[in-house]
Specification:
Blueprint (H helix, E strand, L loop, with lengths): L1 H6 L2 E10 L2 E8 L5 E8 L7 E8 L15 H17 L5 E7 L2 E8 L13 H14 L9 H4 L7 H5 L2 H5 L14 H4 L30 H15 L3 H10 L4
Antiparallel strand pairs: 1-2, 2-3, 3-4, 5-6
Helix pairs in contact: 3-8, 3-9
Length: 250
């Protein structure tokens, strides 16, 4: 049902393979008119039953030659705007579309929101954090081999303070539990004012594995890196990103 809301159902376009227990089909999404690849797992016992279904959206079409070309830049913008309107009317999209080419704006319009609306970046901000961290490394003010405790004197004594390095944090190999998985997170959201306010959610938790031995996505890693940026630069995280990442070199 979630797929139906997002894609409007599927039209089979091509059977890619039929194997024992697995059928792979290229489909076209009814709402977006994009292409997807559908995997259907079938129980080999009789009578056959579907035991699993998965989808990879936005794949290449079966034959690029059959794809209708949009034509001019104006036609591209018009078709994109039409698609966005269609999705908005179907309740599948609410946001802003901005398309540019060579600094020329081809389309800038809001659908269900104002064109100048601000949106939460979520984990896209991790790229800014990584750039800021490596800027400090490049300047010789920080080492990727430094431990958390060596950079953050106020970080509580713990295995993560002495064993986890900046490199581990950047590469998601620290073993520090994700703070969003903490049962205390939801109940304390209104108490968080600074990056350091989040430390108690994970600092006392045991490491999930020895640092550097495995990979595990954890928002805690980049929360700590934000604190590192503030400590080393003497700037707040937002100020540093605004001045030295978003604004670029003077």
């Amino acid at each position: 049902m979630g797929w139906r809301r997002e894609y409007g159902g599927f039209e089979p376009a091509r059977i890619d393979s039929v194997q024992r227990g697995l059928i792979v089909v290229t489909v076209r999404e009814s709402l977006t008119r994009g292409w997807g690849m559908l995997f259907v797992e079938v129980d080999s016992a009789s009578p056959p039953k579907v035991t699993g279904v998965s989808l990879i959206p936005f794949v290449e079409p079966p034959d690029w030659r059959s794809v209708e070309r949009a034509g001019s830049e104006g036609a591209v913008a018009e078709r994109l705007s039409g698609l966005a309107e269609q999705l908005a009317l179907a309740g599948a999209f609410r946001g802003v579309v901005l398309v540019t080419r060579n600094e020329r704006v081809l389309l800038h319009r809001g659908y269900g929101v104002a064109a100048d609306s601000s949106f939460e970046l979520a984990s896209v901000s991790k790229m800014f954090t990584a750039v800021a961290t490596l800027q400090l490394v490049e300047q010789g003010r920080l080492s990727t081999d430094a431990t958390i405790g060596a950079v953050l004197p106020e970080y509580p004594p713990s295995p993560s303070a002495t064993e986890v390095t900046i490199r581990h944090l950047l590469t998601m190999s620290a073993g520090i539990p994700d703070l969003f998985r903490s049962p205390r997170y939801r109940g304390r959201q209104d108490q968080f004012r600074t990056l350091r306010d989040h430390w108690p959610l994970f600092v006392e938790s045991p490491l999930e594995f020895p640092p550097g031995t495995q990979w595990s996505y954890s928002n805690s890693n980049f929360m700590i890196l934000g604190s590192v940026i503030e400590q080393v630069s003497g700037e707040s995280y937002p100020d540093y990103i605004r001045k030295y990442v978003l604004a670029g070199p003077a």
